[in-house]
C-alpha cells in the first residue's frame, strides 16, 4: 500500500492512492485533505458548543416549566415583538374620535319639569344586557331618590351593542317601561369600556349641559346618595378641576395575562400609570367632563376606562382627588355605616344583598 503522505497527517495513514513518482502532487493533495479535515472539525466543534450553551440557558426553565412559565415566555416574545412594532403613543392628532351612533337615545333623562328645576347630579351606571336583575335592584333601592328621573338627580344605565336579537328586544322592552337606558352601537365588551365612558361624557355635555355634577358607577355597587350629595357640596370647588373617588396614585400596569387588568406593553409602554380613580365610583363636575371629552380626541384609546380618564386628567393638568368613603371593595355590612356619612360606595354587592341592605335600618 502506497502511503507517501502519511507524515503530514500526524500518524494517520491516508489512502491517497498515488505512486511514489507523483509524490509532490500527493503531498499537496494530502495537505489539502488535512487542512479541510481540521477546518471541518473546528467548525463542527464551535457550532455544537454554541448550540449546547444555548440549550443550557433554556433547559432549566423548560424542565421546571409550568403552564404559566411557558405562557410568560411566549408573552415575553410577543411583547418584545410588538413593542418594537407599534407601542401606544402618548399623544396623537385627532386619533380618537367617538363616532358611534345611539341605538337608544334617552332624551327624557335630562328634561326639566318646570322653570325653577335644576339638575344637581347625573349618575351613569355601567351595565350589560343580561343584568336586568341588577338594574331592577338598583331602581328599587338607592335610585329611589331620583323619583323616576323627575327629581334633581338623574340616572341612566349604559350599554353597547350585542349580537343576540332576543337579548336586544328584552332591553328595548325594559327601556319602554323605565326610560332610563342609553345605548350606542359599539360592541359591548370589557375591552370597550372606554367607549362607554366617552358615550356618557358626550351625553352629559350635549344632552345634559345644565347638569352640574357627574357620577360614574357600576351595576354591582351600593351608592349612598345622601352621602354623595354631601361630598359634592363639600368638594364642589375642587371638583371643577379634579375627579374624586377611590383614587390611587402610583399604580402600575398588570403584565400578567391572567389579570383582569392585564395591559400589554404594546397598549401601554410605560412602567406606571398616572394613577386612577376606581371605576366603581368617581364623581366630577360637568366642566371636567367637557374638558376630558375634548382632550380625549388627541389621547389614544386605552382599554381600562378609569386609567384612560386619569391619563386625560394629567394632560389637562387636573388632579385625582382621593375622598374618604369611596370603597372599591365591600366593607362589612353595618346599616349605620352604609346609611351614614362615612360610606359613599361599596363594591361587589349582588342584587339580593343590595335589597337586604336597603331594607335594614340603622337603630343606633
Ligand atoms: C410579531 O409581529 C408580527 C406582525 O405583527 C406577527 O405577525 C408575528 O406573529 C409576531 N410574532 C410573535 C412571536 O408574536
Ligand atoms: C319643579 O319640579 C320639581 C320636580 O317635579 C318639584 O320638586 C319642584 O317643587 C317644582 N318646583 C316648582 C316651583 O314648581
Ligand atoms: C325590601 O325593600 C323593597 C323595596 O326596596 C320592598 O319592596 C320589599 O318589600 C322589602 N322587603 C322586605 C323583606 O322588607
Ligand atoms: C322613595 O322615594 C319616595 C319619593 O320619591 C319616598 O316617598 C319614599 O319614602 C322613598 N322610599 C324609601 C324606601 O326611601
Ligand atoms: C370594540 O368596539 C368596536 C366598535 O364596535 C369593535 O370593532 C371592536 O371589535 C370592539 N372590541 C372588542 C375587543 O370587543
From TrEMBL:
Similarity-based family: Belongs to the glycosyltransferase 31 family.
EC number from the UniProt entry: 2.4.1.-
Topology in membrane: Single-pass type II membrane protein
SUPFAM superfamilies for this protein: Nucleotide-diphospho-sugar transferases (SSF53448)
Taxonomy of the source species: Eukaryota, Metazoa, Spiralia, Lophotrochozoa, Mollusca
GO cellular component: Golgi membrane
Keywords, in A-Z order: Glycoprotein, Glycosyltransferase, Golgi apparatus, Membrane, Signal-anchor, Transferase, Transmembrane, Transmembrane helix
Protein's cellular compartments: Golgi apparatus membrane
A GO term for molecular function: glycosyltransferase activity
Organism: Sinanodonta woodiana
Keyword Glycoprotein belongs to the record: yes
Protein name per the record: Hexosyltransferase
Transmembrane intervals: 33-52
Amino acid at each position: 500500500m502506497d502511503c507517501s503522505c502519511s507524515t503530514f497527517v500526524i500518524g494517520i495513514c491516508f489512502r491517497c492512492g498515488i505512486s511514489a513518482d507523483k509524490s509532490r502532487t500527493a503531498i499537496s493533495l494530502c495537505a489539502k485533505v488535512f487542512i479541510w479535515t481540521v477546518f471541518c472539525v473546528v467548525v463542527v466543534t464551535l457550532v455544537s458548543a454554541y448550540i449546547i450553551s444555548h440549550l443550557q440557558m433554556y433547559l432549566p426553565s423548560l424542565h421546571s416549566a409550568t403552564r404559566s412559565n411557558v405562557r410568560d415566555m411566549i408573552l415575553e416574545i410577543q411583547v418584545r415583538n410588538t413593542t418594537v412594532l407599534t407601542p401606544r403613543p402618548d399623544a396623537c392628532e385627532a386619533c380618537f374620535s367617538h363616532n358611534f351612533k345611539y341605538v337608544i337615545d334617552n332624551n327624557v333623562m335630562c328634561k326639566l319639569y318646570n322653570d325653577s328645576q335644576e339638575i344637581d347630579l347625573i349618575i351613569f351606571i355601567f351595565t350589560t344586557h343580561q343584568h336586568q336583575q341588577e338594574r331592577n335592584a338598583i331602581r328599587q333601592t338607592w335610585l329611589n331618590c331620583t323619583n323616576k328621573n323627575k327629581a334633581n338627580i338623574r340616572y341612566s344605565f349604559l350599554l353597547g351593542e350585542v349580537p343576540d336579537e332576543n337579548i336586544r328586544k328584552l332591553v328595548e322592552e325594559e327601556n319602554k317601561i323605565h326610560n332610563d337606558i342609553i345605548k350606542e352601537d359599539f360592541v359591548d365588551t370589557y375591552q370597550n369600556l372606554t367607549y362607554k365612558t366617552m358615550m356618557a361624557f358626550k351625553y352629559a355635555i350635549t344632552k345634559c349641559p345644565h347638569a352640574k355634577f357627574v357620577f360614574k358607577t357600576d351595576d354591582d355597587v351600593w351608592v349612598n346618595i345622601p352621602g354623595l350629595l354631601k361630598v359634592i357640596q363639600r368638594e364642589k370647588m375642587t371638583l371643577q378641576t379634579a375627579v374624586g373617588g377611590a383614587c390611587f396614585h402610583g399604580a402600575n400596569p398588570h403584565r400578567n395575562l391572567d389579570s383582569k387588568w392585564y395591559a400589554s406593553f404594546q397598549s401601554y409602554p410605560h412602567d406606571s400609570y398616572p394613577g386612577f380613580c376606581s371605576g366603581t365610583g368617581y364623581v366630577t363636575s360637568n366642566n371636567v367632563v367637557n374638558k376630558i371629552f375634548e382632550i380625549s380626541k388627541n389621547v389614544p384609546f386605552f382599554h381600562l376606562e378609569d386609567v384612560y380618564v386619569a391619563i386625560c386628567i394629567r394632560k389637562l393638568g387636573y388632579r385625582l382627588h382621593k375622598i374618604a368613603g369611596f370603597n372599591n371593595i365591600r366593607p362589612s355590612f353595618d346599616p349605620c355605616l352604609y346609611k351614614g356619612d362615612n360610606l359613599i360606595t361599596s363594591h361587589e354587592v349582588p342584587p339580593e344583598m343590595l335589597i337586604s341592605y336597603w331594607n335594614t335600618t340603622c337603630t343606633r
